[in-house]
Amino acid sequence: MRGGRSPGGARGRGARSGRAKNAPRKVTTKRVGGTRSRSRRVPLRRRVGSGASRVGSMSRFQGVSILLVVVLSFAGLKLVHVQAFEAEALSARAERQRTTVMDIPAERGAIYDRDGIELAFSVETRTLQVNLRNMRREWTEHLRDNPESDMDFDARIEEISEYIAEQVPELTSEQELLARFRKPADFTYLVDKVPPSVADEITERYPEIAEEKRAHREYPGGRLGSNVIGYANWRMEDEDVSKHNLRGLVGLESARDNDLAGRPGQQVVDTRQGDRAVVIPGSERDVRPAVPGSDLHLTLDSDVQHDLQQRLSDYVSRTKADGGSAVIMDAETAEVYALANDSTFDPNEFGDVSEDQLRNDAVTIPFEPGSVNKVVTAAAAIENGITDPDDVHSVPGSIRVADHTVRDAWSHGTLGMTTTGIFAKSSNVGTLLLARELGPDVFAETVERFGLGQRTGIGLPGESAGYVPPREQWSGTTFGNLPIGQGLSMTVVQMASMYQALANDGIRVEPSIVRATEKPDGTRVPEPDPESSRVVSADTAETVVDMLRATVQEGDGQNSGTAPKADIDGYQISGKTGSAQQVDPATGSYSDSKYNINFAGIVPADDPQFVIAIMLDAPDTTLPEGSSAAPLFRDVASYLVQRHQIPLSGEESPVVPLVVE
Fold first, then answer.
1. Mean predicted confidence (pLDDT) in 144-150
2. Residues spanned by the domain of 120
3. Whether 226 is catalytic
């Protein structure tokens, strides 16, 4: 509109001159270059003002334009730099923030006894978890938006803790849950081993609680064979959320973890920002399926194992021993039917287990065997033609070895003792007389063939090799100690292995505890054949086994062996007692009150089926049964012959002369 204000701020021309709307304009004519031109007459002031305005506007426009060009140029350069040089790194960083590579747990293999009874298997459970950072933030925002609300973070976690504790009281308590909710952390696990249906109910009621699939290991036998079977689990507090497979921690669960565990699968998933374990549903991709683990089939017999554990524990208690271990081994194959320690544990209650309970003393703790080791001298003497069972030897009450005097366990003058009598009555002096005829080199070779100072290869973790001093380190008194079972050490499994060699016609077979693995497709793969080696000839082995029947005989006068209480009516029994002073750790010398009490025996002697080895740690030798493990052997062997319906021996063991007047 002409009379209005213009974008520049000046009024219309008509209004300023005061002329009529249609009045003619006054025009002047000016000659330019000989030609007359027409121009409007414009006041000087207006011309000057208009020019200044245009100059100012031009200056501002140019400045803004320059600034805009600079800014855009800088932004363009930055964009080029990002796209050209930082794009890959930024993309990778963004991807890491929203994706996680997670394991797909493999189903862990089960463990069975020799008859297919389950000793360990896995079940699916849930673990409840919560993102504490998100939960705190949400309740802070709730209170900000609802200042009158009586529900805050503390009230919410109290409600949730009370409800969960009511649903799974056997797994956790309200106080434990509250402590986890109040941790100064962004994330926490709350409780594991929750049944899937219960977990679903909890997470539906409380959306801030998430659940995660887990596998829980069950041990239906509880303490049955637990030192052998072991334990597998994942640790709720410390486990990386993307690595949550069961892993073996103790026993065969640990030693054979590669077989049992299988191979985890893997998948890429998206997680919400800040959530350690909450997977965005439907985001799974790049899935590599898990491969289930193999089952283990053991040599253990659950019934025999249970019986041995019970009897051993009771006997240790009755004799007030510090501990005890025992092994039952197949006489021919060296398969272990039972392996027990008085101290054991329930893997279903692993949180209450002490380190001492986890030990498997029968394979990990060596001890001085005492007279049980005299079988080495007996076998070497028969094998090398030094003596025969009925030969009579003049055996004094003591013998001098270097600067030491060795005596028998009972006082006597010089006795005429048969070779059988020397070992059945466990004469130290008679044994050393025969060892002298053998010589140290032959004795050392025989010790090595019996496997002493070497691990048996049973396949259980932590096995000790025991100790035999190297031949080149023997002193004058060494050969006065080793033949009677002092100055060397062995485990209960090694002790059983020695007698297995004699029961198996002189062939020592490497003990075994696993019979086979079974692959997920059902293929059964037997364990490799155990190594075997000949220790003595079959004739020597039979002779020594027959000689050791006299250990359990009860004869007239001095013709009783050291263990008549090991005898079983109707069966021939062959065995050897042992008693060795323990080393007093305070003085470093032998104790006068603490002993290792041992027994190793074969049942039946005329057709060997089983070898039983027992060690009692420092029983009270003043008690009626404290000085011998023979009664325990008798009870264990009696159960074995009934359980396996072993036929009675064809005839009773003959009573042979041990001491000749």
1. 90
2. 102-295
3. no
